[in-house]
Amino acid sequence: MAPEPHRLERARRPLPRSPFVVLGVAALFLFASCGTGSDESTSTITSTSTPSSESSSSESSTSTGLDTDLFFDGALAEEPTTEDCTLSDGTETTCYSITVAGYPSDHEVGPFCPETITDDADAGGIWLDGENVYDLDGQFIEDLAETYGDSTWKMYDEDGNVLVTETQEEFEAAARPDVDPDLQNHCVEGKLEWLENGEPIQTTVLIPTTPVAAAEPSSTQAILGVTLDGVRIDASAPVDAILSAYTIAAFDDCGGHFNPFEGYHLHGAVGCSEVDEVADGDTAQFGYALDGYPVHSPYAEGEAPDDLDECNGHTTEADGYHYHANSAAENLVIACLVGQTVQSDDAGGGPPPNG
Questions:
Q1: Domain count within the chain
Q2: Mean pLDDT of the chain
């Protein structure tokens, strides 16, 4: 029987999944997509547009658009600008051009992988596989063969040292679709200094100044949004491919990690980059989706209201329409988008490069 998942202090987690079915795809997890900016108004944009009745609990209410003042100091690499843009159904409108810095403005990233199988949870980050969130401590590394029902797993040496990507070359080799066999059974972690010029990778997205509801929800974007502390929110990490290569793409305690091409990005919402003010019965906002609707943190288990739609959003008097992130365990921050996004690969709507 697989061992119980190690528990994060911030949330309860379910029992582990049944043994993982190994797929023949290698670690595509380190790929996602990327996407410019003078001075513009930073006041709150208010719209009477709402998601369609199929995807929203409210037929008509006010929805709040993107407020550039909410971004933390240092989160944006350039002052936001507005420009003409065309949405997915051909609607001509205006969009904010937002360039996020690519590195959290309010905290350092990491740690990711533990050093030994005796390390506690403080020495590592987390691992989320679509069903569970695990603390990346030494015990988790030691238990991998049991957790995933495969004796090939052994991510530590005879002295109990965890096998970790230790150089830029190893990190990039582990990022290839065909993972170097020498890097199987490695905990994969990146570092800022291993990115080009040792600098964060900025991403520019176009977000409608006024959200416009789509006829039906969409979920094709490689970039789903941006956080208020300057990080891109990416679609699911392909954990099947990661695990089939006998690797663990370690996340830090904020649910983010590095790849060589897009830098640091987010796959799970665990309470970082939140605003201070929270309406009664709601959770704190921490970002914006590409369609312009705010993204709030997940509800605690058992506390979600009954009016959440298929994209995990709802309309409230205090905040208008907004999403709630999925539990980090699901490896998908935003289930789908109810609003229209920009007709442009540069705005984050295209497929992942090299993927």
A1: 1
A2: 83
CB 342 within 8 A of CB 35: no
Phi and psi (nearest 5°) for 232? Answer: -80, 145
Cβ-contact 346, 204 below 8 angstroms: yes
In this prediction the pTM is: 0.81
* CA dist., res. 307 & res. 282, Å (int): 12
CA dist., res. 14 & res. 330, Å (int): 12
User: What domain range is 31 assigned to?
Assistant: 1-355
Ranges assigned E (strand) in the chain? 46-47, 63-64, 81-86, 92-100, 126-128, 133-135, 186-188, 203-208, 213-218, 223-227, 232-234, 247-249, 256-259, 263-266, 285-289, 294-296, 313-316, 320-324, 337-339
How far is Cα 249 from Cα 112, in angstroms, rounded to an integer? 9
pLDDT tens, residue by residue, 247-290: 999 999 999 999 998 999 999 999 999 999 999 999 999 999 99
